[in-house]
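User: Let's play a game. I give you a shape written as tokens, and you guess the letters that built it. Ready? Here's round one.
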């Protein structure tokens, strides 16, 4: 079975600093428009709500390759600053964790649009190894259990090697072409009526 309108995106973002920190089912996502940014915080309008995220040396910034020039102009700086790459008006996706001190940004990346995220039902993330995959479902071993996610025509797949030609294939590309058993992936998903539906599958390490 083919996935209607399955979007395969090119993984062109560059990770600055060391390898991204592992995420868990407790990691959340917020997507919206930057309304304020400093060297240590970023405020994002998510839906109708403003959310402020704490940014520190553990926050990973996913930016365009050309932005590396900014970092190269800062000799001796151990980490690029968030306000070197992001500014008010940018649509962003923030992966974060919350505790009594606030929302801690784990990863920030620029996206094409702010989307229509609901801050009362944030997207969650599970990271682990794919144990099975079909055209409509993917099962991931994460946090000591198998988690099965439904895959729809609105599910984005980010995988190295995908091309614009793939995206232009008319929605006939099967998920199994790009996601395989044994791959290490992170899955962004939402829960509703006891079911988990993937909004994004990001292949971090391919088994092929």
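Assistant: Ready! My guess for every position:
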């Amino acid at each position: 079975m083919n996935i209607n309108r399955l979007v395969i995106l090119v993984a062109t973002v560059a990770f600055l600093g060391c390898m991204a920190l592992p995420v868990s089912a407790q990691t959340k996502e917020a997507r919206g428009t930057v309304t304020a940014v400093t060297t240590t915080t970023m405020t994002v309008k998510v839906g109708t709500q403003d959310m402020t995220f704490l940014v520190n040396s553990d926050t990973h910034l996913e930016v365009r390759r050309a932005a590396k020039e900014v970092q190269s102009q800062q000799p001796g700086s151990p980490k690029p600053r968030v306000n070197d790459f992001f500014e008010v008006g940018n649509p962003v996706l923030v992966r974060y964790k919350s505790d009594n001190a606030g929302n801690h940004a784990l990863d920030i990346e620029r996206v094409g649009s702010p989307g229509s995220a609901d801050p009362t039902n944030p997207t969650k993330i599970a990271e682990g190894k794919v144990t099975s995959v079909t055209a409509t479902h993917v099962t991931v071993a994460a946090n000591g259990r198998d988690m099965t996610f439904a895959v729809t025509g609105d599910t984005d797949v980010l995988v190295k090697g995908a091309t614009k030609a793939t995206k232009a294939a008319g929605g006939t590309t099967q998920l199994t072409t790009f996601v395989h058993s044994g791959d290490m992936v992170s899955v962004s998903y939402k829960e509703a009526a006891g079911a988990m539906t993937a909004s994004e599958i990001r292949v971090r390490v391919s088994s092929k």
